[in-house]
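Expect chain and fold; thus:
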Amino acid sequence: MQMLRIGFLSECFFSFILAIGLSLYLTPIVIEAALKYDIVDRPDGKLKNHDRPTAYLGGLAVYLAFLFTLALTFDFSSDVLGILLAGSMLVMLGVIDDLRPLGPGLKLLGQAVAVLVLMRAGLYIKIAVLPPGIALVLTFFWLMATINAFNIIDIMDGLASGVACIASAVLFIVAVINRQTMMSILTVSLCGALIGFLRYNKRPARIYLGDAGSMLLGLTLGALAMMGHYSERNPVGYFAPLLILGVPLFDTAYVMFLRWRKGIPVIQGSPDHFALRLRRAGCSVRATVLLSSGAGCLLGMLGLACMFAKSSGAAIAIIGAAVVALVVFGMRLARIDMAPQE
């Protein structure tokens, strides 16, 4: 048993290093191609305030590093194939949107098709007390929420990729604790691909994830979160993924609430993101990303604590404390004046 354990951890370590190396190798190639064919994000003086046109298609680099790592280290089961096929669909959808912006309706339709493909591969929320129909509906809305949460939070150099890296690391811990080999390899490979990508995505970013990357991360992490086992000690542990992916989910709910309160469409762009409010409060981009990643790490640890709580009451107390802290944090940020400055 110990030899098997050592072999498993060695395979994880190899996958991690391989994913980092592939990402470090592939990302500059994608940057060069994006600049050559003018696939760039141009500043507009409104929500896009970067200094110069910056390469898109970072999601393609992350996806290829992730895919090649799995191809070289892991046998493709139906679950893995489902994640990769659905992920491929979102990468293609995102690339098209990066080249020529699609309307919200078309993007949502493409996301829904990718989610349905993933569900047909057999990946869905599996809770014994839930009727199959309700479990499928919850799965659909969960994945649509995580896809759009990472798409929405991708507004700053290194923000979405850094938060996703932390979430994948926490999910790796969940997988190792539960001895889930497939989930371990998937999460550690994604984490490695993101670490390599962050070398070029941190401020000043040379490449952005684009819609292809942010939607891919949301789908993949949402699916991996569903694969974990959380309720061996208490049934409330099922809510741990909400904490593990708490940063992008909080930002999505926060932005939607503020836009609704202002009477503007929730899909309309606005500077209401918590990260932009931290910037207005005086935090640098680097500090904002570090604070967001730190919050992701803390929420991830609370998710693990919720899993290991000896009683449902203790788990509920952990979740309640996290919710109260986020609400207070959001209320304080809401006081910041986000009106354009001259």
